[in-house]
From TrEMBL:
<feature type="compositionally biased region" description="Basic and acidic residues">
    <location>
        <begin position="1"/>
        <end position="26"/>
    </location>
</feature>
<dbReference type="InterPro" id="IPR044666">
    <property type="entry name" value="Cyclophilin_A-like"/>
</dbReference>
<feature type="region of interest" description="Disordered">
    <location>
        <begin position="343"/>
        <end position="376"/>
    </location>
</feature>
<keyword id="KW-0175">Coiled coil</keyword>
<dbReference type="InterPro" id="IPR029000">
    <property type="entry name" value="Cyclophilin-like_dom_sf"/>
</dbReference>
<feature type="compositionally biased region" description="Basic and acidic residues">
    <location>
        <begin position="159"/>
        <end position="168"/>
    </location>
</feature>
<feature type="region of interest" description="Disordered">
    <location>
        <begin position="1"/>
        <end position="28"/>
    </location>
</feature>
<dbReference type="InterPro" id="IPR002130">
    <property type="entry name" value="Cyclophilin-type_PPIase_dom"/>
</dbReference>
<dbReference type="Pfam" id="PF00160">
    <property type="entry name" value="Pro_isomerase"/>
</dbReference>
<feature type="region of interest" description="Disordered">
    <location>
        <begin position="242"/>
        <end position="274"/>
    </location>
</feature>
<dbReference type="GO" id="GO:0003755">
    <property type="term" value="F:peptidyl-prolyl cis-trans isomerase activity"/>
</dbReference>
<keyword id="KW-0472">Membrane</keyword>
<feature type="domain" description="PPIase cyclophilin-type">
    <location>
        <begin position="181"/>
        <end position="374"/>
    </location>
</feature>
<comment type="function">
    <text>PPIases accelerate the folding of proteins. It catalyzes the cis-trans isomerization of proline imidic peptide bonds in oligopeptides.</text>
</comment>
<protein>
    <submittedName>
        <fullName>Peptidyl-prolyl cis-trans isomerase B (Cyclophilin B)</fullName>
    </submittedName>
</protein>
<feature type="transmembrane region" description="Helical">
    <location>
        <begin position="31"/>
        <end position="53"/>
    </location>
</feature>
<keyword id="KW-1133">Transmembrane helix</keyword>
Amino acid sequence: MPSNEERRQAAREKLAKQNERRETDARKRKVKAIGAGVAVVAVAAAVAAYIWVPAGPRAPLRVAAENKYNSLHVTCDFGDRDPAADARKSIASQKQQIAEMRTQIADARKRVPTMPADQRAPLEEQITAAAERADSGERLIGEAEKQLPKLDQLAERNKSLTKPEGKDIPNTGTMTGTITTNAGPIGFELDRSKAPCNVETFATLMQAKYFDGTSCHRETANEAADKKSGLFVLQCGDPSGTGLGGPSWTSPDEAPGFLEPAPGQSNPMQPSQNVIYPAGTIAVANANQQPNPQTGDPGTSNTGSSQFFLVYKDTTLPANYSVIGKTDDAGLTVLQQIAKKGIVPKEGDPAPKPGEPVTDGKPKEPVNIATMKLDE
């Protein structure tokens, strides 16, 4: 029978073995934990490698895609305008010019008695011509002032419009649509590659039904003496019908460098150079003015808006009218039928001399636009 000392020794040995097993198990668990950590890191690295390894090849692809996107889109600088305020400003300026002209006429009349007899007649002729121009200018101002209430009404209509943002405007592709008029339908195609900013304006306005219920306020049939050029257009796009209206923004000029130069012209990219706008062309009207070095007037540009003209016969004009598209053949036929019916003077215009046709006025038979919209 073991003694007490032997039993205590056996217990100590058993406890030592238990401690040794615990330490061994702890070391094994630690090794497993480290191994698991390494495995997690390895998996994470593998996942990271899977995600990032293709990024190198993709980066150039992304750049190429962005470059391609940018090449197919433009940024447009749409300006701000207030047709009614602009008209009042123009009227005030013209009144001042006529007042100065009247002062010069009065001074010239005072000088007539002091002039040598042989110089009086030419001076009196100049005075008479200047007085007629002043009278004509005052008549035009009077007519313009009558249009101000219509422009004020248009300002209320314009409040519902939202100017295009001007970013990421497509510069490729075409859109078709129809101008439904009382004279017949005029099918058209707009081409973004020719004038993306102006096409964007017209797409925006058509979506807002801006042209619906309006009329074409101007028609021309002005043939040059040589019979080789002229101005043959129907102008529309002003809801006020005054020729002064439009939305509260302007579109940048987009010169039609693709048009053929007129005979004798060599550089159609210069705004002062004439080009041929073929029959069927749809272009944007504007109020641009060329700089005048003699007076120091810098001129104006980028004034196009909603007004557009439809060319019914080859027309010669300076190369500063943005071309947004063309009519279809049937639409061109409708335009030519409108032109055959003739032109009458606009309100305030002097009556033509007997036997002389009116070459710039409004359609003899009103041309009303019921709808102008793009195909769905």
